[in-house]
Every structure is written in structure tokens, then in C-alpha cells.
Amino acid sequence: MFDLIPFRRRGRREIMDLRDSIDSFVSGIFEDLGMMGTAFKADVKETDNEYIIQAELPGFSKENINVELVDNYLTIEASNDEILEEERDNYLRRERRRGSYRRSFYIDNVNEDEIQARYNNGILEIKLPKKSPGKKKKRIIDID
User: Fold this and answer.
1) pTM value surpassing 0.90
2) What are phi and psi of 22, to 5 degrees?
3) Which 3 state secondary structure label does DSSP give 11?
4) Is 117 helix (H, G, I), strand (E, B) or coil?
5) Taking every annotated instance into account, which residue ranges of this chain make up the domain SHSP (predicted)?
6) How far is 58 from 80, CA to CA, in rounded Å?
7) Per CATH, the architecture of 35-129 is what?
């Protein structure tokens, strides 16, 4: 019987092998560049009382995550120790990477003493309560 796709039976395996070779080559180009400085995904929400940052950091332990606030910049750093020597004997494909990630957010008008952070199921959630607005003074200015 005639197939609509020529060489279907004989050429399919060769095409798949070629695709895998190209994929391996392209992946290998970026393999040695590491993950330093790569940004992770984060959502930033604002409510009436606080800012909430939710950052995706799957695969990290809480001990390897650092959060600090300096000069109104909230910086989140997460790192896994990179394994340079590893056994590759049984891997068919290795996509999980180890490295360091860092991201900063400019945050203004927050009460620094009440910032809270929680890490659960690969999501780091940071709550930054806003400073309560002080009572605004009304001043009448005399005109000369």
C-alpha cells in the first residue's frame, strides 16, 4: 500500500536520531555556562496593608536561601552546591541543574521590623507590611 509520508518505515528512526543529536549538541553549548545570575520566576502582589512576593525556588532547602533588605532593595539568593565530579554512567539525560540564583526587588514604604518569610513546597513567600500612613498635618500658609 502507498504511504502519504515517503520513507516512513525506513527514515523515521534516522530522523529521530538526528533530532536527538541536535538537541544534545545545543544543550551541550550551554551546559558549561552554569546558572549563576539566572533569575527565577516571582509574583509581586500589593494589598492595602502589604506587599507579597512569591518566588519559585523548587529543589532548594531552606538553609540555602538567603533574603536580605538593604537600602530598599530586597534581595533573594538561592544556591545549590555545584557538583563538578559526577558519575554519568547511568544517565540517559540530565536536565536538573545546580547553581546560584539571585534577584533583587526595589521595595519602598515597608515596616522592616515586621517582614515575614515562609518557604513551603518550593515557593518562598515574603510578606512586607506597609508603613502605616501617619496622620497628615494640615498647615495653613500665610500669604504676604
Assistant:
1) no
2) -65, -45
3) helix
4) strand
5) 31-144
6) 11
7) Sandwich (2.60)
